[in-house]
């Protein structure tokens, strides 16, 4: 009898651990979505450059809003109504570096089925939590190293040339900092997509503009990514090196104490907010072993505590809750 009780206790413990580990591992097998990736990059670079004026109206008709977004926001050449538009586009498509980048992109992303599969899984989770929301149309493009991810109403674009791998020679020639190159690889495409989509769909509407409101908002975005990518490691979801994530976990109380003792949470100073939320080699108030964006990581922990201590709050309610002070108070956060 004691042996059976012991076995049951072990099984019970395993079930408990499993539940904690798979908090976001919901069943999405019955959710059907037809996600398609439109290879705008392939079509654009395959057209006959001598007949560009013939193809421009066709591209404009086929790609609609995305084509306008590409022209205005990604390669910054203006609209097709500009009399020099075709010359600008021609210059982009025939630029030596850009053509070499396209060739490298073709090699790196000769097969993008993994992007389609992983995005499909992520957006199945999105439909699970937000069944009334639409799934965006997905496009790939070459940006000339300008934009990683772009979004607009019902569309999401992926700049493949921003994910060629941290050792890509083009990034070295551009003298991009190592901390930027670190996340310019395939592993970060899906988390970047879901982060960009969350920011588009759930903008920060907090009436207060201080460090607390910024880190809580970004913590909500990270929690959203948790739900969309339940099987991804935290280091990938927030783009920290493993040792940087370990530093945050080890120094969680220290980070929080520093913010409190220096009255930083309620600071509206632009540079202070950037110090804790922007990309960089590390957070200047801490050691060089720390990652940049420690404020975002801290906001993530506060939001997780809020959700753990308020079981009635759904993901939908969380994303529409714009009172950062309320989230902090109800989180009962104590590292």
What characteristics describe this protein?
disordered N terminus; 4-stranded mixed beta sheet; mainly alpha; 335 residues; 2 domains
Explain this structure.
The chain has helices at 2-21, 40-46, 52-74, 85-94, 96-108, 113-129, 169-173, 178-181, 189-201, 211-228, 234-238, 242-250, 252-261, 270-277, 294-309, 315-320, 324-331, and strands spanning 37-38, 137-141, 149-152, 155-159. The longest helix has 23 residues, at 52-74. It starts with a helix and ends with a helix. Helix 9 (189-201) crosses helix 10 (211-228) and helix 10 (211-228) crosses helix 15. A four-stranded mixed sheet has the order 1-2-4-3, with helices on both faces. Strand 3 and strand 4 (155-159) form a beta hairpin. It folds into two domains: 37-201, no CATH class; 211-331, no CATH class. The protein is globular. It is built from 17 helices and four strands. With 335 residues, it is mostly helical.
List the helices and strands and how they pair.
Layout lengths: L1 H20 L15 E2 L1 H7 L5 H23 L10 H10 L1 H13 L4 H17 L7 E5 L7 E4 L2 E5 L9 H5 L4 H4 L7 H13 L9 H18 L5 H5 L3 H9 L1 H10 L8 H8 L16 H16 L5 H6 L3 H8 L4
Parallel strand pairs: 1-2, 2-4
Antiparallel strand pairs: 3-4
Helix pairs in contact: 6-9, 9-10, 10-14, 10-15, 10-17, 15-17
